Every structure is written in structure tokens, then in C-alpha cells.
Fold this sequence. Notes:
Layout: H1 12-24, H2 28-41, H3 46-53, H4 57-70, H5 92-104, H6 109-120, H7 126-139
Helix pairs in contact: 1-2, 3-4, 5-6
Amino acid sequence: MSAQKVFIKLSEEQRKELERGFKSGNKPIFRQRCHYILLSDRGYEIPQIAELYRVTRQLVGRWFERYKQQGMAGLHTAKGRGEKPILRLDNAEHVQTVKNLVDQHAQDLNPVLAALEEQLKQPLSKRTLHRFLKKLVTSGNASEE
């Protein structure tokens, strides 16, 4: 019993759009997914594409389905993936709390870290606090009072 061969045939416009995504997409995984579809249009079968990228055939097939259903938008990684941030710039309470604590302990972040862990009831690394402070400064929120 042989598996049905699945190919995606593209219009010239779709091909150009996928080639743009493959060449200049922001994320490597998005560029890779664009390439899956382009390879299929060129006659590569799912097992060949999976072998080339060292992924499963099921994974390639799922991206084919997402492309058929949603077009280019389906090749982007969905929102809500990954771990949620502990501190958020859009949370005014977090911003104000961090500002107040840093003002009190400007030379030593260890007390800031301890106070935040106690308030948030969640472990927090010094690296996370540094990243948050850097975002705070670059966003322009640090100078607001």
C-alpha cells in the first residue's frame, strides 16, 4: 500500500510571496516553513522535505495543511507560545513597584530581587530583573513619574 503523494501547486503570486518570506522573513522557523511549501511546488515529496530538514513527515504535513487553510499567516508561530513573562511592561503595578524598589536600592539589586520575589510569590532571577530594567529604560517608562 503506497501513501498518496501530496504536493502544493502555487500560483505565480503565491510563489513570489513565499520566496519573499523565505529570503527575508524575520524568524528562521518561518523561513523554513516557507521553504517547505516552495519545495513541494517544485515536486519534492513530504518524506524528502522531512529528510532534508531532519523533521518528521507529520510535521511537514501539518504545515502544508496550515498553509492550505490560512495561507502565509498559517506559517507564522501562533501567539501564546512559550513561558509567560514574570514582569510585564504593560502591567503598571509591576513597573511602579520595580521603580520604587530600584530607587530605594539603586546600588544593590539583591534587596530588589528579594522584595519582588516576596510580592510576586514567584522565583525571579537577577537576569530576568536586568532584562526588565533594560526594557524599562529603552521603552521610555523609566523617566516617567
